[in-house]
């Protein structure tokens, strides 16, 4: 990579992108006056407080405060770093990311390039390791027995290829010999979790004698592996550790493959193991994902709810499976909103999704999924088992036990239904407790009050200029602002200079140029300020503001010089200035 991404390319990318179309491709927007609105994708809410402006090319949530341009939306929605978001947005627009040499010193450039190259090399290296494992599956001395094992599990060559399944030989240095011959390469394999630092500084392969499942991110890049042992050893599954590119609580095994198979997924089923995902796909259920050996996290659930409206957790029917379901439910509660659902299904004792679908087939398994328990029913069943429903004490204890879960649950139809169900089940005997329960509940995310921005001439001028950059033409000679010293004037001057130097600049491009600065935060706040000045009146109001700014400066300067005159502290230049001001 040559260097940094040019500002001109970023500006062009923003100019190419209509933020309304971009956001609408991920969140359904509805026309609301001149803007568009939706329930915020970044927090749970019942009434829409998320707005997108086509004029400003900016989004803002009055509930949680999320705001930004198209790049910010990609970063926040897809949880990407800045450069990755640029690459994603470039792909959305069908263009290649441009690079240039930066103004950094050669040493700084080399350091940045090395860091960026290392990140790219990480993906490239793991892609090669994945190919190495796949090659092993075909050519290694053990390949026949491994392939027989896969066939015995009912897997075809096509499904093995679709998921990139491979084989790590039962040796200590297969990957190390192939890709870790230099000290730097060996260190990279250790950093990426493919090797373990051994005695005498000699790394050895982490995965040995295992069926290998590559884990891919949302862009299809290999970021880690899961390895299943083929014999009776332990652990049965061995997973990549956390690395600089792999964060297991944020990724889902099989999600990339599911989205590749169906561009318009309707639901996802969460299972516990890699083999469960692959076996279900083998039988035509191509919408299964696994949570990578962890409890299904809030990040993973949020990713799924952004992809589909229905998520079904399919776990073993034993205590461990039910505990996993309970943790998933707790993590999901803050994310629940109208229009999405979380359900639960448990396979019979002694079975797992892999064995069950092989035994009964696709139709029977999907029937099981269709009969999954809704979240509310699962919650009631679990809590009812812990109390005596027939005593007043038991009823009071049950109502109390619901409190922490209802507190997590945002206002929604589901929450209303649970409260109604409690009232119906326990009647007036528990009326006081129920009222208290309802009163004490607050949405997990309260819609914040709209910030009250104090109206000052400088703030209003900046807000108008952000929305209408062409207003800079009202003041052809910016040097007249030089002597003015008022709060906020420096930022206003810089903004005027920026707009003057770039006649075609847009609101979105201005905000982007101030990213990650304190001034940028101020500008973003002023851009979404509801000042109620329409476009037709903007020029006249802006001119009036400039006049007020000059008048305020003249009044303040005159008062200061008069005070100095009364104290006999004026020099000759100040006397001349005061005389000019008094005569103006």
Which descriptors apply to this entry?
DNA primase DNAg catalytic core, N-terminal domain, DNA Primase, Chain A, Dna Topoisomerase Vi A Subunit, Chain: A, domain 2, 24 helices, 16 strands
Structural description of this entry:
This protein has about 575 residues and is an alpha+beta fold. It has 5 domains: about 5-95, DNA Primase, Chain A (Alpha-Beta Complex); about 115-245, DNA primase, catalytic core, N-terminal domain (DNA primase DNAg catalytic core, N-terminal domain, Alpha-Beta Complex); about 255-380, 3-Layer(aba) Sandwich (Dna Topoisomerase Vi A Subunit, Chain: A, domain 2); about 385-440, Up-down Bundle (Pheromone ER-1), CATH 1.20.50; about 455-584, DNAb Helicase, Chain A (Orthogonal Bundle), CATH 1.10.860.10. Helix content is about 50%, strand content about 10%. It contains 24 helices and 16 strands. It has helices at about 5-15, 20-25, 70-75, 80-95, 105-140, 145-150, 155-160, 175-180, 185-190, 255-260, 275-280, 300-305, 320-330, 355-370, 375-385, 390-410, 415-425, 430-440, 455-465, 490-500, 505-515, 520-525, 535-565, 570-584, and strands at about 30, 35-40, 50-55, 60, 65-70, 165-170, 195, 205, 210-215, 220-230, 235-240, 265-270, 290, 310-315, 340-345, 375. The strands form 4 sheets. A 5-stranded antiparallel β-sheet has the order 1-2-3-4-5. A 5-stranded mixed β-sheet has the order 13-12-14-15-16, sandwiched between helices. A 4-stranded antiparallel β-sheet has the order 6-9-10-11, covered by helices on one side. The longest helix has about 35 residues, at about 105-140. The two termini are about 60 Å apart.
